[in-house]
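Re: weekly structure request thread

Next one in the queue (401 aa):
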Amino acid sequence: MANAPAPSRSLLFLLVALTALGEVSTQLIIPGLGAIEHALQAPQGSALMALSAFVAAFGLGQLLFGPLSDRIGRRPVLIGGLALYVVATLAMLLVTDIQQFIAARVLQGLGACAALVLARTVVRDVWKAEAGPALALTMIGMLYAIVVAPIAGGLLIKLLGWRAPIALALVIGSLVLLLALLFFRESNHHLDPRAAHWRTLGGQYLDLLKGRQYRAYAVALACTYGAMFAVIAGSSAVFINLLGFSSLEYGLNFGLIVSMLIVGSTYTRRNIQRLGPQRIVAMGVTMVAVGGVAALAIYLVFGLSVVGLDIPIALVTLGGGLVLPGSVTGAVMPNAHRAGLAAGLMGFAQMFGATCSGLLLSQLRDGSAAPMIIIQAGLALSALVAFQLLRQRQVKTLSYI
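Done, posted below.
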Protein backbone atom coordinates (compact mmCIF):
# COMPACT_ATOMS: atom_id res chain seq x y z
CA MET A 1 0.00 0.00 0.00
CA ALA A 2 1.44 3.35 -1.03
CA ASN A 3 0.86 5.25 2.21
CA ALA A 4 2.06 2.46 4.47
CA PRO A 5 5.30 3.17 6.36
CA ALA A 6 8.38 1.49 4.91
CA PRO A 7 11.22 -0.05 6.90
CA SER A 8 13.64 2.74 7.74
CA ARG A 9 16.19 3.76 10.33
CA SER A 10 14.07 6.70 11.46
CA LEU A 11 11.04 4.48 12.08
CA LEU A 12 13.23 1.93 13.85
CA PHE A 13 14.64 4.68 16.08
CA LEU A 14 11.11 5.70 17.09
CA LEU A 15 10.18 2.08 17.84
CA VAL A 16 13.32 1.66 19.95
CA ALA A 17 12.33 4.75 21.96
CA LEU A 18 8.78 3.43 22.41
CA THR A 19 10.08 0.06 23.60
CA ALA A 20 12.42 1.71 26.09
CA LEU A 21 9.86 4.08 27.61
CA GLY A 22 8.50 1.69 30.24
CA GLU A 23 11.94 0.75 31.51
CA VAL A 24 13.03 4.38 31.56
CA SER A 25 10.02 5.15 33.75
CA THR A 26 11.01 2.51 36.29
CA GLN A 27 14.79 2.44 36.22
CA LEU A 28 15.20 6.19 36.65
CA ILE A 29 13.48 6.19 40.04
CA ILE A 30 14.77 2.90 41.47
CA PRO A 31 17.89 4.44 43.08
CA GLY A 32 15.60 6.94 44.83
CA LEU A 33 12.94 4.65 46.31
CA GLY A 34 14.11 5.40 49.83
CA ALA A 35 14.26 9.13 49.10
CA ILE A 36 10.69 9.06 47.74
CA GLU A 37 9.42 7.34 50.89
CA HIS A 38 11.22 9.86 53.08
CA ALA A 39 10.00 12.89 51.11
CA LEU A 40 6.39 11.71 51.10
CA GLN A 41 6.57 10.49 54.71
CA ALA A 42 5.54 7.03 53.59
CA PRO A 43 6.09 3.70 55.37
CA GLN A 44 9.16 1.70 54.40
CA GLY A 45 8.46 -0.52 51.41
CA SER A 46 5.54 1.56 50.09
CA ALA A 47 7.58 2.81 47.13
CA LEU A 48 8.00 -0.83 46.14
CA MET A 49 4.21 -1.05 45.93
CA ALA A 50 4.32 1.87 43.48
CA LEU A 51 6.66 -0.20 41.30
CA SER A 52 4.32 -3.19 41.46
CA ALA A 53 1.29 -1.00 40.66
CA PHE A 54 3.06 0.38 37.59
CA VAL A 55 3.95 -3.11 36.40
CA ALA A 56 0.41 -4.42 36.96
CA ALA A 57 -1.10 -1.55 34.94
CA PHE A 58 1.61 -1.97 32.31
CA GLY A 59 0.66 -5.62 31.86
CA LEU A 60 -3.13 -5.37 32.03
CA GLY A 61 -3.25 -2.45 29.61
CA GLN A 62 -1.55 -4.48 26.91
CA LEU A 63 -4.45 -6.95 26.93
CA LEU A 64 -6.65 -4.11 25.71
CA PHE A 65 -4.35 -1.84 23.69
CA GLY A 66 -2.93 -4.61 21.50
CA PRO A 67 -6.26 -5.88 20.13
CA LEU A 68 -7.70 -2.34 20.14
CA SER A 69 -4.96 -1.37 17.67
CA ASP A 70 -6.05 -4.31 15.49
CA ARG A 71 -9.52 -2.78 15.45
CA ILE A 72 -9.07 1.01 15.17
CA GLY A 73 -5.45 1.31 14.03
CA ARG A 74 -2.01 1.68 15.57
CA ARG A 75 -1.71 5.48 15.42
CA PRO A 76 -4.71 6.55 17.57
CA VAL A 77 -3.88 4.00 20.28
CA LEU A 78 -0.23 5.03 20.29
CA ILE A 79 -0.91 8.77 20.44
CA GLY A 80 -3.54 8.34 23.15
CA GLY A 81 -1.22 6.18 25.24
CA LEU A 82 1.70 8.59 24.96
CA ALA A 83 -0.51 11.54 25.90
CA LEU A 84 -1.69 9.65 28.99
CA TYR A 85 1.94 8.91 29.87
CA VAL A 86 2.91 12.59 29.72
CA VAL A 87 -0.03 13.72 31.86
CA ALA A 88 0.57 10.98 34.45
CA THR A 89 4.29 11.74 34.70
CA LEU A 90 3.52 15.42 35.23
CA ALA A 91 1.11 14.40 38.01
CA MET A 92 3.92 12.44 39.71
CA LEU A 93 5.84 15.69 40.10
CA LEU A 94 2.90 17.32 41.88
CA VAL A 95 1.89 14.63 44.38
CA THR A 96 1.92 15.24 48.14
CA ASP A 97 1.53 11.69 49.49
CA ILE A 98 2.36 8.12 48.53
CA GLN A 99 -1.24 7.23 47.60
CA GLN A 100 -1.29 9.97 44.96
CA PHE A 101 2.13 8.83 43.76
CA ILE A 102 0.91 5.24 43.34
CA ALA A 103 -2.22 6.40 41.47
CA ALA A 104 -0.10 8.48 39.09
CA ARG A 105 2.23 5.51 38.55
CA VAL A 106 -0.75 3.36 37.55
CA LEU A 107 -1.75 5.88 34.88
CA GLN A 108 1.86 6.19 33.76
CA GLY A 109 2.04 2.41 33.41
CA LEU A 110 -1.06 2.36 31.22
CA GLY A 111 0.44 4.99 28.94
CA ALA A 112 3.84 3.31 28.72
CA CYS A 113 2.34 -0.09 27.94
CA ALA A 114 0.65 1.31 24.82
CA ALA A 115 4.09 2.38 23.61
CA LEU A 116 5.58 -1.08 24.10
CA VAL A 117 2.82 -3.18 22.58
CA LEU A 118 2.45 -0.83 19.60
CA ALA A 119 6.20 -0.88 18.94
CA ARG A 120 6.21 -4.68 18.78
CA THR A 121 3.10 -4.72 16.62
CA VAL A 122 4.33 -2.10 14.16
CA VAL A 123 7.57 -4.04 13.66
CA ARG A 124 5.50 -7.02 12.53
CA ASP A 125 3.35 -4.79 10.30
CA VAL A 126 6.26 -3.12 8.53
CA TRP A 127 9.15 -5.59 8.49
CA LYS A 128 6.90 -8.65 7.93
CA ALA A 129 9.02 -11.80 7.43
CA GLU A 130 12.20 -9.89 8.34
CA ALA A 131 10.76 -8.71 11.65
CA GLY A 132 12.83 -11.04 13.85
CA PRO A 133 16.10 -9.05 13.85
CA ALA A 134 14.17 -5.76 14.00
CA LEU A 135 12.25 -6.92 17.07
CA ALA A 136 15.51 -7.91 18.73
CA LEU A 137 16.99 -4.52 17.90
CA THR A 138 14.07 -2.64 19.48
CA MET A 139 14.59 -4.81 22.56
CA ILE A 140 18.20 -3.65 22.73
CA GLY A 141 16.89 -0.11 23.16
CA MET A 142 14.88 -1.25 26.18
CA LEU A 143 17.95 -2.96 27.58
CA TYR A 144 20.09 0.13 27.13
CA ALA A 145 17.48 1.95 29.17
CA ILE A 146 17.85 -0.64 31.95
CA VAL A 147 21.62 -0.09 31.92
CA VAL A 148 21.80 3.70 31.60
CA ALA A 149 18.69 4.88 33.46
CA PRO A 150 19.70 3.74 36.99
CA ILE A 151 23.05 5.49 36.59
CA ALA A 152 21.37 8.70 35.40
CA GLY A 153 18.71 8.40 38.08
CA GLY A 154 21.26 7.91 40.86
CA LEU A 155 23.24 10.93 39.70
CA LEU A 156 20.17 13.16 39.36
CA ILE A 157 18.87 12.18 42.79
CA LYS A 158 22.23 12.94 44.37
CA LEU A 159 22.46 16.34 42.69
CA LEU A 160 18.85 17.55 42.47
CA GLY A 161 16.59 15.33 44.57
CA TRP A 162 13.96 12.65 43.94
CA ARG A 163 11.83 14.67 41.51
CA ALA A 164 14.69 15.15 39.02
CA PRO A 165 14.51 11.66 37.43
CA ILE A 166 10.74 12.02 37.07
CA ALA A 167 11.23 15.35 35.33
CA LEU A 168 13.66 13.66 32.92
CA ALA A 169 11.05 10.96 32.21
CA LEU A 170 8.55 13.74 31.47
CA VAL A 171 10.93 15.33 28.97
CA ILE A 172 11.62 11.98 27.29
CA GLY A 173 7.92 11.09 27.09
CA SER A 174 7.07 14.49 25.62
CA LEU A 175 9.75 14.17 22.95
CA VAL A 176 8.57 10.68 21.98
CA LEU A 177 4.97 11.95 21.75
CA LEU A 178 6.09 14.80 19.52
CA LEU A 179 8.04 12.44 17.24
CA ALA A 180 5.04 10.11 16.97
CA LEU A 181 2.72 12.99 16.10
CA LEU A 182 5.07 14.29 13.42
CA PHE A 183 6.44 11.18 11.80
CA PHE A 184 4.39 8.05 12.56
CA ARG A 185 1.94 6.92 9.89
CA GLU A 186 -0.67 4.23 10.30
CA SER A 187 0.76 0.75 9.67
CA ASN A 188 -2.39 -1.36 10.05
CA HIS A 189 -4.40 -1.16 6.85
CA HIS A 190 -6.42 -4.33 7.49
CA LEU A 191 -8.56 -3.31 10.45
CA ASP A 192 -10.51 -6.07 12.15
CA PRO A 193 -13.91 -4.79 13.40
CA ARG A 194 -14.26 -7.90 15.58
CA ALA A 195 -11.02 -7.27 17.48
CA ALA A 196 -11.13 -5.93 21.05
CA HIS A 197 -14.86 -6.66 21.36
CA TRP A 198 -15.54 -7.49 25.00
CA ARG A 199 -17.71 -10.48 24.10
CA THR A 200 -15.07 -12.19 21.99
CA LEU A 201 -11.75 -10.89 23.37
CA GLY A 202 -11.41 -13.59 26.02
CA GLY A 203 -12.04 -16.29 23.44
CA GLN A 204 -9.42 -14.81 21.14
CA TYR A 205 -6.82 -14.92 23.89
CA LEU A 206 -7.76 -18.49 24.74
CA ASP A 207 -7.38 -19.40 21.09
CA LEU A 208 -3.85 -18.01 21.13
CA LEU A 209 -3.02 -20.00 24.25
CA LYS A 210 -4.18 -23.22 22.61
CA GLY A 211 -0.90 -23.13 20.70
CA ARG A 212 1.62 -25.18 22.68
CA GLN A 213 4.58 -23.17 21.42
CA TYR A 214 2.90 -19.84 22.24
CA ARG A 215 2.34 -21.04 25.80
CA ALA A 216 5.98 -22.09 26.04
CA TYR A 217 7.19 -18.65 25.00
CA ALA A 218 4.70 -16.85 27.26
CA VAL A 219 5.64 -18.83 30.39
CA ALA A 220 9.37 -18.57 29.67
CA LEU A 221 9.02 -14.80 29.27
CA ALA A 222 6.91 -14.41 32.42
CA CYS A 223 9.24 -16.43 34.65
CA THR A 224 12.43 -14.95 33.21
CA TYR A 225 11.29 -11.36 33.60
CA GLY A 226 9.92 -12.19 37.04
CA ALA A 227 13.35 -13.45 38.07
CA MET A 228 14.93 -10.29 36.70
CA PHE A 229 12.33 -8.06 38.37
CA ALA A 230 13.13 -9.51 41.78
CA VAL A 231 16.57 -7.95 41.34
CA ILE A 232 15.24 -4.78 39.71
CA ALA A 233 12.88 -4.14 42.63
CA GLY A 234 14.97 -5.53 45.48
CA SER A 235 18.57 -4.77 44.67
CA SER A 236 18.59 -1.10 45.69
CA ALA A 237 17.75 -2.00 49.30
CA VAL A 238 20.30 -4.81 49.30
CA PHE A 239 23.19 -2.84 47.82
CA ILE A 240 22.47 0.48 49.54
CA ASN A 241 21.23 -0.66 52.97
CA LEU A 242 23.18 -3.90 53.43
CA LEU A 243 26.33 -3.43 51.34
CA GLY A 244 26.76 0.29 51.96
CA PHE A 245 26.55 1.62 48.40
CA SER A 246 25.53 5.21 47.67
CA SER A 247 22.68 5.76 45.20
CA LEU A 248 25.21 6.68 42.50
CA GLU A 249 27.44 3.66 43.26
CA TYR A 250 24.37 1.44 43.15
CA GLY A 251 23.33 2.86 39.78
CA LEU A 252 26.79 2.27 38.33
CA ASN A 253 26.97 -1.29 39.67
CA PHE A 254 23.45 -2.14 38.54
CA GLY A 255 24.14 -0.72 35.09
CA LEU A 256 27.24 -2.88 34.80
CA ILE A 257 25.34 -6.03 35.78
CA VAL A 258 22.45 -5.55 33.38
CA SER A 259 24.72 -4.54 30.51
CA MET A 260 24.83 -8.28 29.88
CA LEU A 261 21.26 -7.93 28.62
CA ILE A 262 22.63 -5.96 25.70
CA VAL A 263 25.22 -8.63 24.99
CA GLY A 264 22.54 -11.32 24.95
CA SER A 265 20.11 -9.31 22.85
CA THR A 266 22.82 -8.44 20.34
CA TYR A 267 23.61 -12.13 19.97
CA THR A 268 19.90 -12.81 19.46
CA ARG A 269 19.56 -10.15 16.76
CA ARG A 270 22.48 -11.59 14.81
CA ASN A 271 21.54 -15.26 15.11
CA ILE A 272 17.77 -15.57 15.48
CA GLN A 273 17.10 -16.15 11.79
CA ARG A 274 19.80 -18.81 11.65
CA LEU A 275 18.99 -20.62 14.89
CA GLY A 276 15.28 -19.85 15.24
CA PRO A 277 13.45 -18.48 18.30
CA GLN A 278 13.08 -21.87 20.00
CA ARG A 279 16.81 -22.59 20.19
CA ILE A 280 17.56 -19.02 21.26
CA VAL A 281 15.03 -19.19 24.10
CA ALA A 282 16.20 -22.67 25.16
CA MET A 283 19.76 -21.35 25.50
CA GLY A 284 18.52 -18.30 27.39
CA VAL A 285 16.40 -20.08 30.00
CA THR A 286 19.31 -22.42 30.71
CA MET A 287 21.58 -19.45 31.49
CA VAL A 288 18.86 -17.84 33.59
CA ALA A 289 18.36 -20.99 35.65
CA VAL A 290 22.08 -21.56 36.20
CA GLY A 291 22.58 -17.96 37.29
CA GLY A 292 19.60 -17.92 39.64
CA VAL A 293 20.51 -21.18 41.35
CA ALA A 294 24.17 -20.15 41.58
CA ALA A 295 23.25 -16.90 43.34
CA LEU A 296 21.23 -18.82 45.92
CA ALA A 297 23.95 -21.43 46.46
CA ILE A 298 26.66 -18.79 46.92
CA TYR A 299 24.49 -16.86 49.38
CA LEU A 300 23.72 -19.97 51.45
CA VAL A 301 27.34 -21.14 51.56
CA PHE A 302 29.35 -17.91 51.70
CA GLY A 303 26.84 -15.26 52.75
CA LEU A 304 26.16 -11.88 51.15
CA SER A 305 28.83 -10.27 48.98
CA VAL A 306 29.03 -7.97 45.98
CA VAL A 307 30.83 -10.53 43.82
CA GLY A 308 28.50 -13.32 44.95
CA LEU A 309 25.57 -11.30 43.66
CA ASP A 310 27.04 -9.55 40.62
CA ILE A 311 28.41 -12.57 38.74
CA PRO A 312 25.34 -14.87 38.97
CA ILE A 313 22.93 -11.99 38.31
CA ALA A 314 24.99 -11.03 35.27
CA LEU A 315 24.45 -14.58 33.96
CA VAL A 316 20.71 -14.25 34.58
CA THR A 317 20.61 -10.99 32.64
CA LEU A 318 22.71 -12.48 29.82
CA GLY A 319 20.13 -15.24 29.46
CA GLY A 320 17.36 -12.67 29.68
CA GLY A 321 18.89 -10.94 26.68
CA LEU A 322 18.14 -14.12 24.71
CA VAL A 323 14.76 -14.96 26.24
CA LEU A 324 13.05 -11.56 26.00
CA PRO A 325 13.50 -10.85 22.27
CA GLY A 326 13.50 -14.54 21.32
CA SER A 327 10.19 -15.34 22.99
CA VAL A 328 8.42 -12.23 21.68
CA THR A 329 9.65 -12.98 18.15
CA GLY A 330 8.61 -16.61 18.34
CA ALA A 331 5.13 -15.71 19.58
CA VAL A 332 4.31 -12.70 17.37
CA MET A 333 5.83 -13.74 14.04
CA PRO A 334 3.40 -16.60 13.26
CA ASN A 335 0.40 -14.39 14.13
CA ALA A 336 0.57 -11.65 11.50
CA HIS A 337 -3.23 -11.55 11.20
CA ARG A 338 -3.55 -10.71 14.91
CA ALA A 339 -0.20 -9.17 15.74
CA GLY A 340 -1.63 -6.71 18.25
CA LEU A 341 -3.42 -9.49 20.11
CA ALA A 342 -0.31 -11.70 20.19
CA ALA A 343 2.00 -8.87 21.25
CA GLY A 344 -0.44 -7.70 23.90
CA LEU A 345 -0.70 -11.10 25.53
CA MET A 346 3.08 -11.54 25.53
CA GLY A 347 3.45 -8.11 27.12
CA PHE A 348 0.90 -9.12 29.74
CA ALA A 349 2.79 -12.34 30.42
CA GLN A 350 6.02 -10.38 30.91
CA MET A 351 4.41 -7.95 33.34
CA PHE A 352 2.42 -10.69 35.11
CA GLY A 353 5.70 -12.35 36.00
CA ALA A 354 7.08 -9.03 37.25
CA THR A 355 3.92 -8.27 39.26
CA CYS A 356 3.98 -11.66 40.99
CA SER A 357 7.67 -11.21 41.72
CA GLY A 358 7.16 -7.72 43.15
CA LEU A 359 4.23 -8.79 45.32
CA LEU A 360 6.17 -11.75 46.67
CA LEU A 361 9.10 -9.51 47.42
CA SER A 362 6.96 -6.98 49.28
CA GLN A 363 5.28 -9.73 51.34
CA LEU A 364 8.48 -11.65 52.18
CA ARG A 365 10.65 -8.60 52.77
CA ASP A 366 12.54 -9.04 56.05
CA GLY A 367 15.47 -6.65 55.77
CA SER A 368 17.82 -9.29 54.35
CA ALA A 369 18.83 -10.24 50.81
CA ALA A 370 17.25 -13.70 51.12
CA PRO A 371 13.78 -12.90 49.66
CA MET A 372 15.25 -11.31 46.52
CA ILE A 373 17.69 -14.17 45.95
CA ILE A 374 15.17 -16.94 46.65
CA ILE A 375 12.47 -15.42 44.41
CA GLN A 376 14.98 -14.96 41.60
CA ALA A 377 16.19 -18.56 41.88
CA GLY A 378 12.66 -20.02 42.02
CA LEU A 379 11.41 -18.13 38.97
CA ALA A 380 14.63 -18.73 37.04
CA LEU A 381 14.36 -22.47 37.56
CA SER A 382 10.65 -22.35 36.70
CA ALA A 383 11.46 -20.68 33.36
CA LEU A 384 13.75 -23.57 32.38
CA VAL A 385 11.44 -26.36 33.54
CA ALA A 386 8.29 -24.86 32.02
CA PHE A 387 9.88 -24.16 28.65
CA GLN A 388 11.34 -27.65 28.40
CA LEU A 389 7.96 -29.19 29.22
CA LEU A 390 5.91 -27.02 26.86
CA ARG A 391 8.12 -26.47 23.83
CA GLN A 392 7.69 -28.38 20.60
CA ARG A 393 10.04 -31.31 20.41
CA GLN A 394 10.58 -31.18 16.67
CA VAL A 395 11.88 -27.97 15.19
CA LYS A 396 10.37 -27.27 11.81
CA THR A 397 11.13 -24.53 9.37
CA LEU A 398 8.24 -22.07 9.53
CA SER A 399 7.31 -19.44 7.01
CA TYR A 400 6.16 -16.21 8.60
CA ILE A 401 5.18 -14.49 5.40
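The chain has one domain: 9-185+210-390. The chain has 14 helices and no strands.
Next request, please.
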